[in-house]
Write a structure and sequence with these properties.
The chain is α+β, with helices and mostly antiparallel strands. The chain is built from four helices and nine strands, in the order βαββαββαβαβββ.
């Protein structure tokens, strides 16, 4: 089965981003816009994982998550892979505790590797993002990236990770297989 580990976002954060994207969607029907219900932040894409590796993965993810405290994030600006002039992926970026986010992604990746579910692109640099739209043919999204440049979403605290099964042709597309909580942050008021 095809798995990834990610963060969910609170409804208020999704609503705010949805409103920020709304003006751009009707102008660009050439892009395959992702739906609000599917929005998440990927920590590690694991690709195809066997049942045996999944059994090994569950306790390892639990252990990995316990080493991390919750941290603060907000959605911020936009960008594109491989670049805004010829994009395959349009995304919203993240600001806040990006270092903690990167450390958590590294722990999750290491846990997966030890479980025999090494991410196919483990060597690649982690570039945190939320995918807003995909396009098979390279698309010029410079005007959207510029339009969202100043976007700053409401802050939230990342408090748990999810193990998700992804069925590209399935309904529902995403199924939650596990959820583990980060340790509460010592200074909760900092994240409020
Ligand atoms: P994306 O949003 O940038 O497409 C489920 O597919 C999640 O895993 C998506 O968030 C996707 O990121 C991410 N992912 C990372 N690498 C992937 C890959 N090689 N194939 C499919 N999804 C990948």
């Amino acid at each position: 089965m095809r798995l990834f580990v990610g963060l969910a976002l609170p409804p208020a954060v999704l609503d705010d981003l949805d409103a920020a994207c709304a003006p751009f969607r009707p102008m660009r029907e050439d892009l395959r816009w992702t739906s609000r219900e599917a929005w998440h932040i990927t920590l590690a894409f694991l690709g195809e994982v066997s049942d045996l590796s999944l059994t090994r993965l569950l306790p390892r993810l639990e252990r990995a998550v316990r080493r991390h405290q919750s941290f603060g994030l907000s959605l911020s600006g936009a960008g594109a892979f491989p670049g805004p002039a010829r994009a395959n992926v349009l995304w919203s970026g993240l600001s806040g505790d990006r270092r903690e986010l990167g450390d958590l992604a590294a722990s999750v990746t290491a846990a997966a590797r030890r479980a025999g579910a090494a991410p196919p692109d483990a060597g690649r640099r982690f570039r945190p993002h939320l995918t807003l739209a995909r396009c098979r043919m390279p698309a010029d999204v410079r005007s959207i990236v510029a339009g969202l440049e100043g976007y700053q979403g409401p802050p939230w605290a990342a408090e748990e990770i999810y193990l998700i099964r992804s069925r590209p042709d399935g309904q529902p597309r995403y199924e939650t297989l596990g959820c583990w909580e980060l340790r509460p942050h010592a200074d909760i008021s900092r994240l409020a």
